[in-house]
Design brief:
With 195 residues, the protein is mainly alpha-helical. Helix content is 71%, strand content 0%. The termini are far apart.
């Protein structure tokens, strides 16, 4: 069963990775570049401060903790425990894959920390932001999907690495959302009682 899943994952990777185009190369390269997204993050911080005002400190701290925990689980715990080679480090795939300009990445790839972090942030904010930010919520998930897909396009992750990372990020983002809402509720109750 596991061998069949690996074969399916490899075949799907080769199919998706094989659909590359010169026009998409720079887009997918920058989609995987964390520094490229700094202006996007700054816009999100601005929106968070405008929406949550004094409570924005708690939201930003929660995001920092969320990304730290997600990244540690994806980059260290799972990768070092499972030790599944990235497709870019599989000798049998060397002549079959398309490696974009970003290079082969580290040795192990399960799960994608890029995808896990992106889906954690997107889920957390999509659940936390008020309903009238519907368009921004779509943008957040489009961004997360773009980041995740770029990892396959660039030749450094199997689809399974990305899908499991998306689920992991979504679960952690949902849990952090529940935690921050409990904190807000407790803070609100304490303020009422204090008056």
């Amino acid at each position: 069963m596991i061998n069949q899943l690996k074969a399916l994952d490899t075949n799907l990777f080769l199919y998706l990775n094989g659909k590359h185009h010169a026009l998409l190369d720079p887009i997918m390269f920058y989609a995987s570049d964390k520094l490229f997204w700094v202006p996007f993050y700054l816009v999100l911080i601005f929106i968070i401060i405008r929406v949550f005002k004094k409570r924005s400190v708690f939201v930003l701290l929660a995001i920092g903790l969320l990304i730290l925990v997600t990244d540690q689980i994806a980059s260290h715990l799972l990768k070092n425990t499972i030790q599944r080679l990235r497709p870019s480090h599989e000798l049998a795939l060397t002549d079959l894959i398309y490696l974009n300009n970003g290079g082969p990445g580290g040795q192990y790839g399960f799960v994608s920390s890029h995808a896990a972090n992106a889906f954690a942030l997107a889920t957390f904010l999509a659940l936390l932001l008020p309903t009238h930010f519907k368009f921004l919520k779509y943008i957040l998930f489009f961004w997360a999907i773009l980041v995740a897909y770029s990892r396959i396009y660039n030749g450094v992750h199997y689809p399974g690495d990305v899908l499991v990372a998306a689920v992991l990020g979504g679960v952690l983002g949902g849990l952090m959302n529940k935690g921050i809402l409990l904190l807000f509720q407790k803070n609100y109750t304490n303020t009422i009682v204090g008056n």
